[in-house]
Specification:
It is a single chain. It contains 14 helices and 15 strands. The chain has helices at 15-29, 80-91, 98-126, 142-155, 210-216, 242-250, 272-289, 306-318, 347-356, 376-383, 395-399, 416-425, 434-447, 451-463; strands at 3-7, 37-40, 66-68, 130-134, 162-167, 203-207, 226-227, 259-262, 295-298, 325-327, 336-337, 343-344, 360-363, 387-390, 406-408.
């Protein structure tokens, strides 16, 4: 099968893409998909990601299996203010007057026409069997989603295959608010402007959890989504290699200090500011006890949300953590050496590094009602390392009450007791926590099984007429 991808994130690297990599590798290992994916990563319709709008970062690295190809081609992108206005008006649907509805409809349709032409050409050129649409049900780009539905319906009317909408977030459960106005970015449910997948013969739907599937049952569609939990990366239990040591030299990571990972974007709800406060408490406890101070490696890009990034950098300075924090400015989908010969590591290699230094993971959402899974605890469990977590609503649904973690307080409560507990689980003390780490690994293996994705890959192949390993 030939696979295309359309991402709603508008980022060069995101959690969606790292999970997609694992899903794609599984399909490739099964012999069901070709070895290369062509993708539009959503740069041209996400002006709320100003560091990447409208054409992504300069000199972008992509692994050999991924080709980035913008559906707009040489067409001029839409104005940023226009795109943001449409997004915000869609969220205000219930407050609009008839005249405002008419204006919004007209402007959505004008943008939709541009993207419809782009998708029609894109599909005709690449002739994908299936196009994965990642988080495209949300209303970040309603004109784009409408255009994708329309172009796909026309294209796949005469050829097998179609669209797989793969949603990690949906309207009600993704309660993001604008940091300036305080208004909700997304409506709480679909409205007349937000198409949802329908049983039209060329559309499949997948969501990552039963709570999201339950939400879809309130939507205006009879299409039933597949429930396919995310797949976690495989973290080899092997000694570090040259690229790991080169990375440590590049970032001046001294031997003997545990490495703790914050596998999140630098975006307000992800709580990097909370992680910094917790690191300050860890540092205080480590110095008091004469123990090595952990490093914190933050995955996200400083370019995604510049105002918040400024706050994060100012907080780092105010807490005296400049020597203890490394902002990786985006983690690649595959480890590689850049044009200057400097080594960058992907998620799996960073987990190996944390494991080898007897470090851990921090996952500290600053709000309770945005994460729909929260992969931080799962990544820690997959690598066999401890994790510190703030409480968020779906943690217990996904991981269970018995998952062993350090609970990081929110709301200004004293972090020192939690810091002392987490510090005790790092370094040489990890041996005393081996049973807990194995328990977490077993829970995570159950929560993120590969079997549903194996079955979905086979289902997509069957929809094409049973394309197997010798037919791709």
């Amino acid at each position: 099968m030939r696979i295309g991808l359309v991402s709603g994130d508008g980022l060069p690297v995101s959690g969606l893409l790292t999970v997609f990599r694992s899903v794609f590798e599984l399909g490739r290992d099964l012999g069901l998909v070709e070895s290369r994916v062509t993708a539009d990563l959503g740069y041209s319709w996400r002006p709320d990601k100003p560091g990447f709008f409208p054409s992504g970062p300069p000199g972008e690295y992509t692994p050999p299996w991924l080709e980035v190809d913008d559906v707009l081609g040489t067409a001029d992108p839409l104005d940023a203010a226009e795109l943001l206005w449409i997004r915000d008006e869609v969220a205000r649907h219930d407050e609009l007057t008839p005249a405002e509805h008419a204006s919004l409809t007209e402007r959505i349709e004008a943008a939709e026409a541009l993207y419809r032409r782009g998708f029609e050409d894109w599909l005709a050129r690449h002739r994908f069997d299936w196009v994965f649409a990642l988080n495209m049900t949300l209303s970040d780009g309603v004109s784009v989603t409408r255009a994708l539905h329309g172009a796909a319906a026309a294209h796949y009317a005469s050829t097998p295959g179609g669209l797989l909408f793969w949603d990690h977030d949906l309207f009600r459960s993704y309660a993001v608010h604008d940091p300036v106005t305080g208004s909700r970015v997304y409506p709480t449910r679909p409205n007349r402007y937000t198409p949802v997948p329908q049983p039209d013969g060329c559309t499949e739907w997948a969501v990552i959890s039963e709570p999201l599937a339950a939400e879809t049952r309130t939507y205006p569609t009879s299409l039933v989504p597949h429930i396919v939990p995310n797949i976690l990366p495989r973290v080899p239990a092997a000694p570090l290699e040259g690229r790991h040591h080169a990375f440590a030299r590049r970032y001046e990571l001294a031997a003997g200090r545990p490495i703790v990972l914050a596998p999140v974007r630098i975006f307000p709800v992800k709580g990097v500011d909370v992680a910094l406060d917790f690191l300050a408490a860890l540092k205080e406890e480590a110095v008091r006890g004469g123990r090595p101070v952990p490093y914190l490696l933050v995955f996200g890009s400083l370019s995604e949300d510049p105002p918040y990034a400024e706050q994060v950098l100012a907080r780092t300075h105010r807490l005296g953590l400049e020597q203890d924090v490394r902002f990786l400015d985006g983690v690649p989908l595959a480890s590689f050496a850049d044009a200057d010969g400097e080594q960058l590591l992907d998620e799996a290699d960073l987990l190996r590094l944390a494991k080898a230094t007897e470090g851990g993971v921090m996952f500290t959402p600053s709000v309770t009602d945005v994460e729909t899974v929260g992969l931080g605890p799962g990544l820690a469990a997959a690598a066999g390392i401890p994790v510190a977590v703030t409480d968020y609503e779906v943690f217990h649904t996904i991981y269970g009450d018995s998952f062993v973690r350090t609970r990081v307080p929110l709301g200004g409560d004293d972090m020192r007791p939690a810091a002392a507990e987490f510090l005790d689980s790092l370094g040489g003390a990890q041996a005393h926590h081996r049973a807990s780490l194995e328990h977490n690994r077993a829970l995570t293996a159950s929560a993120f099984p590969e079997r549903p994705w194996i079955e979905l890959w086979q289902h997509l192949a069957d929809r094409l007429g049973g394309a197997g390993p010798d037919q791709v």
